Amino acid sequence: GLIHHIGTSEQDVGKAATLKIAELQQAAGEQLQYGLCISAAEIDAPDSRCAGVEQALMEQGLEFIGQVTVPIEAESVEYRKIVEAFVSAWADKHSINLSSEWAEIGIVAAASPQDIPLIQLQAYHPKAIAVSFDVSEILYEAIGAGVKQIGAEADSFVEGYIGVSLLVLETISGQRISTRAIESGPIIVEAIPSQEQIAREKVIHEIC
Question: What is the DSSP letter of 28?
């Protein structure tokens, strides 16, 4: 039977991503005021991630614009128009004047793949910092090009390390910890990996 489950809380990932946006905005001399979560139709995980975004904003005394859902295969222009219309309607309802560059908005794209349409959205609103889920080559290219985008994902290395460690513990001592569900925590990617890391990731057995 199942001994342990090792994984990352989707809500915690959304929260961590939002806090990182606030940190980066402050470092850039901007002040995060509002947060937006972009979901995708037919995918469940973003709901928990967006709940984490809202929780982080509330704890920081900031406002949650809401969760906007886009078609999972939306092209860049359609994606941008849906998101902009959602933000514009929210701003009009609350009589808020937003800058065209969206310097006061943090964006969490809670479902993947959204890298390409998200990059195009940021081209129109260059001061917004966005987080996309699951690291990809497209994300690395965006970071390298200076796009204000970062990535968030589960820490697979830590999950594997904990799993093997627990199996070794039980094999050698016959003991196991009582906690069944173990959270490994998320990782935030904001820089291009080194050539050494890229080389390691190309040889699977070296990082397993």
Answer: T
Closest alpha carbon to 189 in 144, 135, 110: 135
Sign of CA dihedral 10, 12, 15, 16: negative
Other CB atoms within a 10 A radius of the CB of residue 184 amount to 19
How far is residue 26 from each of residues 127, 141, 206, measured CA to CA in Å? 12, 24, 38
pLDDT digits over 17-28, tens only? 899 999 988 888
Q: What is the pTM of this model?
A: 0.76
- Checking DSSP bridges between strand 181-183 and strand 149-154, what pairing results, if any? unpaired
Q: State the Cα–Cα distance between residues 208 and 205, nearest whole angstrom.
A: 5
